[in-house]
TrEMBL record:
PANTHER family: G-PROTEIN COUPLED RECEPTOR. The chain crosses the membrane at residues 33-58, 65-86, 106-125, 145-167, 187-214, 235-260, 272-294. This is G-protein coupled receptors family 1 profile domain-containing protein. The keyword Cytoplasm does not apply. The keyword Membrane applies. Signal peptide: none annotated. Gene3D superfamilies: Rhodopsin 7-helix transmembrane proteins. Pfam families: 7tm_1.
Amino acid sequence: LTAVTQPTTAMFFYNLSGRDLIVEEQHYRSVGFFIGVLLTGVSIIFLNGLVLTAIVINRRLHYPFYYLLGNLAVTDLCVGISYLVITCLSGVWTSTVSTSQWFFRQGLIDTSLMASLMNLMAIALERQQTIFTMQLHSKMTNQRIILLIVAVWIMAILIGLSPVMGWNCLCDLSSCSETLPLFSRSYVLTISILSLLIMFIVVILYTCICVYVWKKSRRMTEHTSRDQSKGTVVSLMNTVLLILGCFVLCWTPALLLLLLDGLHHVPQKLLVVESFILTLVACNSLVNPIIYTYRDQDVRTTFKCIFCCFCVAYHAYLSCTGHEVKHPSQVQRTPVQTYITIYSSNSNTSATTWDTIATPQQPS
């Protein structure tokens, strides 16, 4: 009877894997760790929500690349929510979590992370296709982009929910993973290899973009100044290194940990810092909206409009409630008028290196 009732709680599988939850709970009880988790999760949700709002309200951003960027914001938004959920249900709460609750929280974070990872690959593919065909915008139609986005989510959901559908170790306790005690080791190995393959493809695609633009710049040197051509290539290299550096830095530790676990060679000391490795992966969803939008003038202008609308609405609220406003002229315009004024002052985006790689130039 004991053998039948114990597997209904996640604690049974943690004990089976030899995890020392007492040591791990010390991290979750730390005030500094809690504040760090809270700030990370809230920042992920806020930044990606801001990017998503900007893409929705600005029609100048209704192009294939921005649809992929918006989907990346959605996936990273889900990562932020699921990261807060899984952290709140970890540590001291692990002993009270049932197997179904554990599958829910882990499936949520796995699906979100896999969708984000595959969407990064989709963006790299779109950028490579656009640059190699020398187009201002991708030749991909909106229908193809929508199909690509749907395919990303279908694959992510299937991968994330595979353990719920039977790819687990509930019926074969000898095959249980150590990092994810309710998952089968074969599933963990498959996920790690698949994710490493996606990472490899992303690195190859951006490397090909660098090589292609570098060769093109050498051919154009005779038509432009050498300093201008050199500056373009340097800017390109810096941008690509920033993308790949953050991507590889955030994902590599977690994928190597899962790979070692799948091969049954994971050191017990690494399991203690598992929560920090997960935080590092979540940080990729924090830097994605910054990396992919910080040089886009249209997106930056839309951000300013959003903040101005909130400021105008706030001052209007203070005025209506009888509070003092230092500058009454700030509430004379409506949010719509403020938006139009700022938006009309936006100059055409110049064709910089980053515009070619990450932010397609808008037609005049």
